[in-house]
Amino acid sequence: MTSHRDVSATPRRPLGEPHRLDLADSVTLRQLWELQRAAYAVEAELIGFDGIPPLHETLQELRGCAESFLGVSDEIGLAGAVSWTRLHDGTLDICRLVVHPRAHRRGIATVLLDSLDVMEPTDVTLVSTGTANQPALALYRSRGFTPTSEREIAPGITVTLLERRTDDSPDHLSRHKS
């Protein structure tokens, strides 16, 4: 019989340093696949929609996704990951940010996003999340992202698109003052 231990009472060892994930390695690929299934199951519950594409992705689809990945491990294994692509204009598009439910509220998403900011500096970063995923929206807002639009992905289910600009161009400033 397994028991759920109170993670708040368990002393936590430090997280490992964020590192690039090599999806050609079958062990890494499976760990990432399991991590994202656990993380997206939580988001599916939060937003009331289990049609999130990565939740149903096969190992082969994940391996072929053409995204770059950064991961962080805890005492048990891969605890969080972020993926991104670069658009033709240099914009950084965050495709996935996943944290294992066992590792929630440990700052893993922040560590991953901080590392991504250092590794992939850019003037414009895009990200999206389920509109009903308030924890994710709060995280992105705290990092300077502003909602730009919402898109309906299923009846009654929307995704919020967010953007962060780090440049001080007049166009950027005038657009965000209104």
Your description of this structure?
By secondary structure, the chain is an alpha+beta fold. 31% of the residues lie in helices and 28% in strands. It has five helices and seven strands, in the order E-H-H-E-E-E-H-E-H-E-E-H. The protein has helices at 26-47, 59-63, 108-119, 134-142, 170-177; strands at residues 19-20, 68-73, 78-86, 92-99, 124-130, 146-154, 157-165. Strands 1-2-3-4-5-7-6 form a seven-stranded mixed sheet. Strand 6 and strand 7 (157-165) form a beta hairpin.
Q: Topology, pairings included?
A:
Elements: E1 19-20, H1 26-47, H2 59-63, E2 68-73, E3 78-86, E4 92-99, H3 108-119, E5 124-130, H4 134-142, E6 146-154, E7 157-165, H5 170-177
Parallel strand pairs: 4-5
Antiparallel strand pairs: 1-2, 2-3, 3-4, 5-7, 6-7
Task: State the gist of this model.
The protein is α+β, with helices and mostly antiparallel strands and 178 residues long.
Radius of gyration: 17 Å
Task: Give me the strand/helix succession.
Answer: EHHEEEHEHEEH
Flag low-confidence runs: 1-11, 169-178
Sheet with most strands: 7 strands, mixed
Defining key terms:
Aminopeptidase, 28% strand, 178 residues, seven-stranded mixed sheet, disordered C terminus, alpha+beta, disordered N terminus
